[in-house]
Amino acid sequence: MHPHEAQNRGTKLMTTISGRRKEATAVVRMKKEREIWL
Question: Global pTM?
Fold first, then answer.
């Protein structure tokens, strides 16, 4: 495996992790807003 291939794999992993974190924070935010409205 070439070093740049490993780098690409690492960046993809990081983007998926950050994307999941953004989704999680959005869900938490929605839940908080729902609690306020209820």
Answer: 0.52
